[in-house]
Amino acid sequence: MTKLTENISQIINLSEEEKAKVESAFKPICITKGNFWITEGKTCNHIAFVQIGKLRVFHIDDLGHEITCYFVSSNNFISSFTSFLTNTPTNENISAIEEATLLVISKSELEKLSGAIPKLHIWRRVIAENLFIMMEKRVSLLQSQTAHERYQKMLKENPDIILSVPLQYTASFLGITPQHLSRLRKESLE
What we know:
Largest sheet: 4 strands, antiparallel
Oligomer: single chain
Number of strands: 8
Helix content: 40-55%
Strand content: 15-25%
CATH class of the domain at 3-108: Mainly Beta
CATH superfamily of the domain at 3-108: Jelly Rolls
Shape: globular
Structural class: alpha+beta
Radius of gyration: 18 Å
Strand order of the largest sheet: 1-8-3-6
Number of helices: 9
Order of helices and strands: HHEEEEEEHEEHHHHHH
């Protein structure tokens, strides 16, 4: 069993035949560090499973600043989900923070696969629900916690982000400047 089908099998049980169908439906692509998988203004009609690497989802605000929404690392699914679900252009960019290998499936292929394996609809619903929960937590975090509290929470729950993601991306995710993040880092070491 690959990490892809192992991940899906955490939500639904797949037979060996179904696992083979799933694995053959997803196609590998590589994205070099700094390159984009999805860019603002395009319609996203794919979902990807991150096999190796780390990606960043961000948008550009009215002042031209990059605002990091979230990071996605190995063994997780990624897409510009609003664009994917509504078939409208995305306002997000998804780029590789480090070299990444993705297993990608188009919306039309996912529909065919879901027709062949109907229980995949349950998996798709759970993925959508988890995304909603993640985004709701993110909004709550930004609205109800101080920068120090957000930083401490990230240190506790996602220390790999602090260690492996460039400072400006982490600061943007936390809703602070890189200088403020440097001060928070210094304070936590004292």
